[in-house]
Every structure is written in C-alpha cells, then in structure tokens.
Amino acid sequence: MKVNLEEDENIIASLPKIWGIALGLSGFFHKSKEGVLALTNKNLIFVPHYLYITPKEQQRYFGDDKARVGKLANYSEVDLDEDISKNSKSWLIPLNSIVSVESVTSRKVNFLRVTFKDEKNKEKKYEFAITKSVINYPQRQPLMYYSLDWTEWVNLIRSYL
User: What CA–CA distance (Å, rounded) separates 119 from 106?
Assistant: First the structure.
C-alpha cells in the first residue's frame, strides 16, 4: 500500500546520482544532497538516497552528455514510496505547482532548474545536476559538475504541466 504516493501515481522517468540544490536563502541553510530524481504523473520527486550504478548504467542514463529519459532498473513505485517514508528531507513538488522548468547555465555547467510555489504560495527554486567529483570529508559534497543537456527532461516535465 502506498503511503506518500497516490494509488494511481506511476513513475514516468527517474535518474540516479542526481544532486539537488536549494537556491536562495533556503539553500544557504541546507547542504546539497545526492539522490534519485523521479517524475511521476502527479509529482516531481527528489529523494536523498545514494544508489551505486555501474559505468555501463551511467552511460545508459547520462550517455553523450544528455540526461536521458528512462526508468531505473529494479526501482518501482513501492521502492520510491518507501524511500520517501525513510527520508523526511525528500522534496515532493506537485506538477500543478510548477511555475517553470528550464535548463540554466551557471559556471559553464547546465543545471535543471525547477521553479514552483509551495503551500504558502512562496516561490522556491531547486537545481539538479550530476557531479564529476565529490569530497567525502567532513560531509559528502560535490566539487565539480558535468554539463548535461537537460532538454529531454525539460520537455517531458513541460508536457505534464
């Protein structure tokens, strides 16, 4: 039984090893997190959850410097629902609250930027990217990002708005 997802909610696309970055004042108080980015037919969801993927799988999801649209192998709606329950810092963004989705270039890197309105009708922005290198001490944080082409994801999310 699903707790955090609706019964008719299905995963359309998902990506592993994505870093979520909160922008603005809220980003100042929150560190970047590594996790799974999933698009369902009702929500855009980011769950801080480390998944190991092989170089072959990485090519499947991020080949030719493009963020590919596809589903994670062996990762179902039940797994996503459990991960949301386990991690209270998951981001659930209802598709009807999204104001804009775009690929933004900053510091020579393309990020997927999602702008949406929260429950208090305040505008929030999150960016998503994958890293080339990560520092593990004192806390796991990205050093450098890959510059990915997010066009497929931008078009897919916009098609559900």
Answer: 28
The model's pLDDT over 21-58, given as tens digits with 9 standing for 90+, comes to 998 766 566 678 899 999 999 999 999 988 888 889 89
Contact 13, 69 (CB under 8 A): yes
- 81, containing H or E segment: helix 77-86
Whole domain around residue 46: which residue ranges?
Answer: 11-159
Report the CATH number at residue 29.
2.30.29.30
Select from 87, 92, 74, 116 the least CA-distant residue to 38: 92
Q: Which one, of 27, 24, 44, lies nearest residue 35 by Cα?
A: 44
The domain tally of the chain equals 1
Q: Is 50 strand, coil or helix?
A: coil
Give the distance from CA 106 to its chain's centroid.
18
Taking the model in full, what pTM does it have? 0.91
